[in-house]
Amino acid sequence: MNGVTILLVGDNPEVRHVSSGFGQAGYVVTAVRDDGEALAEVTRACPDLVVMAESAWESTGVQLVGYLWGICSTPLIILGQSSDGADGIPYLEMGADAYVTSPVDFGELLARAHLLVHLTRKELRNAN
Questions:
Q1: I want to staple 47 with a disulfide (CB 3.0 to 4.6 A). Which of 5, 94, 102, 116 is the partner?
Q2: Which residues of the chain form beta strands (DSSP E)?
Q3: What is the pTM of this model?
Q4: Which residues span the domain enclosing 31?
Q5: What CATH number has the domain bearing residue 121?
Q6: What's the burial of 76, exposed, middle or buried (CB within 10 Å: 0-12/13-18/19+)?
């Protein structure tokens, strides 16, 4: 994906799996363990996309979304812990752009990531 940067947040096997998949798909991947580390990382440099495990969303998750929206214009995908998409509604209401249920279908995740990055870049170009 030609220099597209993804920040992966979470410390579980599924996050490590998608990290490998994004790397193989040509994305530049940075991985951190939790939402606090993610907030510190995005204050240094805004990634093109943040993919966060639901289990990593703790006290600063809402703060991270506010920063992503207000400063970076970076989309956020939550990797859900359940197979019920309705469990993602609170995250979507708090500002996540997508919620992908477990087990993660990497093809679906990759398609959502590509679309969100494309739409965000197009939106930013049109704003200038």
A1: 5
A2: 5-9, 28-32, 49-53, 76-79, 98-100
A3: 0.88
A4: 5-127
A5: 3.40.50.2300
A6: buried
